Amino acid sequence: MATEPPLVLYHTSGCHLCELAEALLMPLAAATGRSVVLAEIAGDDDLEVRYGIRIPVLRDPASGREIGWPFDGTAVLALIAGD
């Protein structure tokens, strides 16, 4: 069985909302067997343009779906489940 690619949390250092999103996300991802990659947007012009005013943003590369902050556990689980 193929494993799902890691979820991607677009963030930047020192962003308190990003820290909240990471704290919410990590236990939910672990409970569902998904890993998470933290993608720093600072210093990447393309990511800064795409996500600069939207971070934190959680993306599931398997489906291409994204959710932006504020999100809650229900939204994270729905994204992981593909709902």
Descriptive report:
There is one protein chain. The chain is α+β, with helices and mostly antiparallel strands and 83 residues long. A 4-stranded mixed β-sheet has the order 2-1-3-4, covered by helices on one side. It is globular and about 30 Å long. The mean pLDDT is 95.
Write the layout of secondary structure elements.
Layout: E1 7-11, H1 16-31, E2 36-40, H2 45-51, E3 57-60, E4 65-68, H3 73-81
Parallel strand pairs: 1-2
Antiparallel strand pairs: 1-3, 3-4
Helix pairs in contact: 1-3
Tell me briefly what this model is.
By secondary structure, this protein is α+β, with helices and mostly antiparallel strands.
Major sheet: 4 strands, mixed
E-strand count: 4
Tell me the radius of gyration: 12 Å
**Tally of DSSP helical segments:** 3
The arrangement of helices and strands along the chain is EHEHEEH
Q: What's the end-to-end separation, in Å?
A: 21 Å
Taken from the alpha-carbon principal axes, the silhouette is globular
Structural class by secondary-structure content: alpha+beta
Name some characteristics of this structure.
39% helix; 83 residues; single chain; four-stranded mixed β-sheet; alpha+beta; globular
